[in-house]
Amino acid sequence: MSRYLIFILTYFLGAIPFAYLAGKHKGIDVRRHGSGNIGTTNAFRLLGSTLGSLVLLGDFLKGASAAALGLWAYGAWGGIIGGFLAMAGHSWNPFFGFRPSGKGVAAGFGIITVLMPKVMFLAIGLFLLVVWFTRYVSMGSVVGALTVGITVFVFQEPLAYQVFGSVASLGVIALHRGNIQRVWQGTEPRFGEKKTD
C-alpha cells in the first residue's frame, strides 16, 4: 500500500461518525440536539450510557488504529501523521461538509495509547479525576490535553511525539474555548445531566 493510500485511510478512519450512526439507530440526529457535535460527550448525553460507551470505544479505536497503521508503515513520524489525520477527519468530518463536528478527545486518547502509553495513563488519570470532582467533561478534556502537552517533554518522548503532543493539546484546548467560557459563566452542562436541545 502506498504512502498516500495509508494516510488517506487514516483520515477516513477518523471520519467514521460513530455518534451519528448510534443516534440513527435510536432515531436521533445528534447533530441537531445537545451540543450538535458527533463526539462522545454528546452521545452520552443524548443516547445514554450503553450507546455512549460504544461510541467512546469506537472513537478511541479509530484513533488508535490510525496511529498504529502509520507507525507500522513509516515509524514514529508516520504514527503522528496518521494520528493527526484521524483527528482532522473526526473534527472536520468530510461526510458533513467539513464543518466543525467533534473535538477529537477520545480519538486522541487512542492515538497516545499507541504512541505514548506512559503519557496516556497520566493524562487519562487526571481527566477522570477532574470529571469525577467537577462533572465537567470539557474541563477533564482540557486538563488531559495540557497533561499530554507537558509530559511529552517530562518523559523525554521522541521529537515526533513531542510535536504531536504540543500541537494536538493546543488544538484540543482551542476547540474547547467555548466550553471554557460556559464553565466560567456557569452554563456548561455537567456530565449526567439530562439532554437539552
Strands, helices and their partners?
Blueprint: H1 3-14, H2 18-26, H3 40-47, H4 49-91, H5 105-115, H6 117-134, H7 137-154, H8 159-175, H9 177-185
Characterise the protein shown here.
It is a single chain. This protein is mainly α and 197 residues long. It has one domain (3-185). It is built from nine helices and no strands. The chain has helices spanning 3-14, 18-26, 40-47, 49-91, 105-115, 117-134, 137-154, 159-175, 177-185. Helix 4 crosses helix 5. It starts with a helix and ends in a 12-residue tail after the last helix. The mean pLDDT is 89.
Outline:
The chain is mostly helical and 197 residues long. It has nine helices and no strands.
Feature tags:
globular, mainly alpha, 9 helices, 0% strand
Shape descriptor reads globular
> Helicity, in percent?
over 70%
Cα-atom radius of gyration: 16 Å
Total count of domains: 1
Number of strands: 0
